[in-house]
């Protein structure tokens, strides 16, 4: 499929308005809000392809994604139970069991979970921060594409997500940056936008 912006679209601001709407409607939608419904392979391919169109210096493309199979989603639920055992150790037995059941079921709600891997490219001679910024742009492209497709998503960067991706067999030059969750949800239950600081307070003039 070929994409292009023609003069008519530029003149009537159609694309600019669509881009603004998608950016401002993007939300972090967590997996406990997801329906257990699959994302069509064609749409998933578009989401991942859009990730690769992120800006990256010298075309280093410092990202890799690991698509978790269903059994790995089950494994991640069990992994979270083990990871957070100490945190919930002081709860009474019923509350602790309820929390563990929640953690085990949580990944199964997602239509798709991707491990986010940063591939350091030493041959390009780029600063590490620049490479990680490129991966962040790739993940944001996926989030925006999900928004446009009315799919919920969020980037899980907590300890269990980071450590689980490490367990998936990374190369010495690779680093875990967590998990990217995707899933359908009730659009009427979209999270409300959070307050943004006025741009007047974030832009200085010299």
Kindly describe this structure:
The chain has 206 residues and is α+β, with helices and mostly antiparallel strands. The protein has a domain at 27-67 and 110-187: NADH Oxidase. Helix content is 41%, strand content 14%. The protein has 7 helices and 4 strands; from the N terminus they run αααβααβαβαβ. A 4-stranded antiparallel β-sheet has the order 1-2-4-3, with helices on both faces. It is globular and about 60 Å long. The model has no long low-confidence stretch (mean pLDDT 92).
Short description:
This protein has 206 residues and is α+β, with helices and mostly antiparallel strands. The chain is 41% helix and 14% strand. The chain has a 4-stranded antiparallel β-sheet with strand order 1-2-4-3, with helices on both faces.
Descriptive keywords:
4 strands, 7 helices, 4-stranded antiparallel sheet, 206 residues, NADH Oxidase, alpha+beta
Summarize the helices and strands and which ones pair or pack.
Elements: H1 7-11, H2 14-25, H3 41-51, E1 63-67, H4 70-83, H5 93-105, E2 112-119, H6 128-148, E3 152-156, H7 159-166, E4 174-183
Antiparallel strand pairs: 1-2, 2-4, 3-4
Helix pairs in contact: 3-6, 4-5
């Amino acid at each position: 499929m070929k994409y292009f912006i023609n003069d008519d679209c530029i003149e009537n601001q159609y694309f600019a308005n669509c881009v603004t709407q998608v950016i401002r409607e993007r939300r972090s939608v967590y997996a406990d809000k997801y329906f257990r419904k699959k994302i069509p392979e064609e749409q998933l391919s578009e989401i991942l392809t859009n990730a690769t169109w992120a800006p990256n210096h010298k075309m280093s493309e410092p990202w890799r994604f690991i698509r978790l199979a269903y059994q790995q989603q089950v494994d991640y639920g069990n992994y979270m139970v083990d990871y957070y055992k100490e945190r919930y150790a002081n709860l009474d037995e019923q509350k602790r069991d309820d929390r563990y059941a929640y953690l085990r079921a949580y990944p199964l709600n997602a239509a798709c979970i991707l491990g986010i891997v940063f591939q350091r490219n030493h041959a390009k001679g780029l600063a590490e921060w620049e490479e990680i910024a490129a991966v962040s742009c790739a993940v944001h492209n996926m989030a925006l594409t999900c928004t446009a497709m009315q799919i919920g998503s969020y980037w899980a960067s907590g300890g269990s997500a980071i450590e689980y991706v490490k367990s998936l067999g990374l190369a010495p030059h690779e680093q875990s940056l967590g998990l990217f969750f995707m899933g359908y949800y009730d659009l009427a239950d979209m999270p409300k936008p959070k307050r943004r600081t006025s741009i007047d307070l974030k832009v200085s003039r010299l």
